[in-house]
Amino acid sequence: MMLPPLKPLPMKDRVSMIFVQYGQIDVRDGAFVVIDQNGVRMHIPVGSVACIMLEPGTRISHAAVNLAATVGTLLVWVGESGVRLYASGQPGGARADRLLYQAKLALDDDLRLKVVRKMYELRFQEPAPTRRSVEQLRGIEGARVRETYKLLAKQYGVDWRARNYDRQRWDAADIPNRCLSAATSCLYGITEAAVLAAGYAPAVGFIHTGKPLSFVYDIADLFKFDTVVPLAFRIAAKAPINPERDVRLGCRDLFRSSKLLGRIIPTIEDVLTAGGISPPEAPPESVPPAIPNPQTLGDAGHRTQ
């Protein structure tokens, strides 16, 4: 009997993330499984996860990567405790009209400023100051962010100096910075999955520029201080032995209870709509696909088979 083709689920219907360490990921009997050193299999419902974080000691087969791409699940290769990003797959981003729309907004100075002002409004719940450039708004934002760190540290009784860490000497960072880095890493992972699922490019940012994940940082910042940053300070106040693990578990529960995955893509659309233009229409001379794309349950950027 032929099984129906696999189709991606929309982001809003998925769980946020899974971390995998010390195991071989493969497809056995049609299932996405992690096999430990004793040969014990653990099934992962890959189609219902937004992203899978692959930590050191993890190997993954070609069949498993293919299955993850088919169901629109982002694979992210990270360092120990998920605090360094080495590489990521790209199961989405397959919408030329949306990529051109995003690029046009980013390249036009006036349109870009409108988008940045909308981001400022969503982040701080007040209109952006008038007659300010993108660079000036970035400076105002930076000052407010530093002050917010201080206020949260005082609220949770955490000894706070500054946001500071060395990627080459991770363990030398203090507990608050380790908690914050682990928390933002989790947020960036699911945000990248949502950006790709919506059909946009992670690298084409508006406030952040010049980084492979500039747009991911832009969108994640809209949620950061309502979600993962307070969580990080709350955990840091307990001085845990393994802060990164506690943060990951806390983020997983927070993302589920706040229904964050269901909010990211609508926020992306809301932000870009502030530019006041529509996605470009196909030119008259363009040739439609010879084989029409099949209907899908997933989001606009998910690839269809």
UniProtKB/TrEMBL annotation:
<keyword id="KW-0460">Magnesium</keyword>
<dbReference type="InterPro" id="IPR002729">
    <property type="entry name" value="CRISPR-assoc_Cas1"/>
</dbReference>
<comment type="similarity">
    <text>Belongs to the CRISPR-associated endonuclease Cas1 family.</text>
</comment>
<feature type="binding site">
    <location>
        <position position="141"/>
    </location>
    <ligand>
        <name>Mn(2+)</name>
    </ligand>
</feature>
<keyword id="KW-0255">Endonuclease</keyword>
<feature type="binding site">
    <location>
        <position position="221"/>
    </location>
    <ligand>
        <name>Mn(2+)</name>
    </ligand>
</feature>
<keyword id="KW-0464">Manganese</keyword>
<dbReference type="InterPro" id="IPR042211">
    <property type="entry name" value="CRISPR-assoc_Cas1_N"/>
</dbReference>
<dbReference type="InterPro" id="IPR042206">
    <property type="entry name" value="CRISPR-assoc_Cas1_C"/>
</dbReference>
<dbReference type="GO" id="GO:0051607">
    <property type="term" value="P:defense response to virus"/>
</dbReference>
<dbReference type="InterPro" id="IPR019851">
    <property type="entry name" value="CRISPR-assoc_Cas1_ECOLI"/>
</dbReference>
<keyword id="KW-0051">Antiviral defense</keyword>
<feature type="compositionally biased region" description="Pro residues">
    <location>
        <begin position="280"/>
        <end position="292"/>
    </location>
</feature>
<keyword id="KW-0378">Hydrolase</keyword>
<dbReference type="GO" id="GO:0004520">
    <property type="term" value="F:DNA endonuclease activity"/>
</dbReference>
<feature type="region of interest" description="Disordered">
    <location>
        <begin position="276"/>
        <end position="305"/>
    </location>
</feature>
<comment type="subunit">
    <text>Homodimer, forms a heterotetramer with a Cas2 homodimer.</text>
</comment>
<dbReference type="GO" id="GO:0043571">
    <property type="term" value="P:maintenance of CRISPR repeat elements"/>
</dbReference>
<keyword id="KW-0479">Metal-binding</keyword>
<comment type="function">
    <text>CRISPR (clustered regularly interspaced short palindromic repeat), is an adaptive immune system that provides protection against mobile genetic elements (viruses, transposable elements and conjugative plasmids). CRISPR clusters contain spacers, sequences complementary to antecedent mobile elements, and target invading nucleic acids. CRISPR clusters are transcribed and processed into CRISPR RNA (crRNA). Acts as a dsDNA endonuclease. Involved in the integration of spacer DNA into the CRISPR cassette.</text>
</comment>
<keyword id="KW-0238">DNA-binding</keyword>
<keyword id="KW-0540">Nuclease</keyword>
<protein>
    <recommendedName>
        <fullName>CRISPR-associated endonuclease Cas1</fullName>
        <ecNumber>3.1.-.-</ecNumber>
    </recommendedName>
</protein>
<dbReference type="GO" id="GO:0046872">
    <property type="term" value="F:metal ion binding"/>
</dbReference>
<feature type="binding site">
    <location>
        <position position="208"/>
    </location>
    <ligand>
        <name>Mn(2+)</name>
    </ligand>
</feature>
<dbReference type="GO" id="GO:0003677">
    <property type="term" value="F:DNA binding"/>
</dbReference>
<dbReference type="GO" id="GO:0016787">
    <property type="term" value="F:hydrolase activity"/>
</dbReference>
<dbReference type="Pfam" id="PF01867">
    <property type="entry name" value="Cas_Cas1"/>
</dbReference>
<dbReference type="InterPro" id="IPR033641">
    <property type="entry name" value="Cas1_I-E"/>
</dbReference>
<dbReference type="InterPro" id="IPR050646">
    <property type="entry name" value="Cas1"/>
</dbReference>
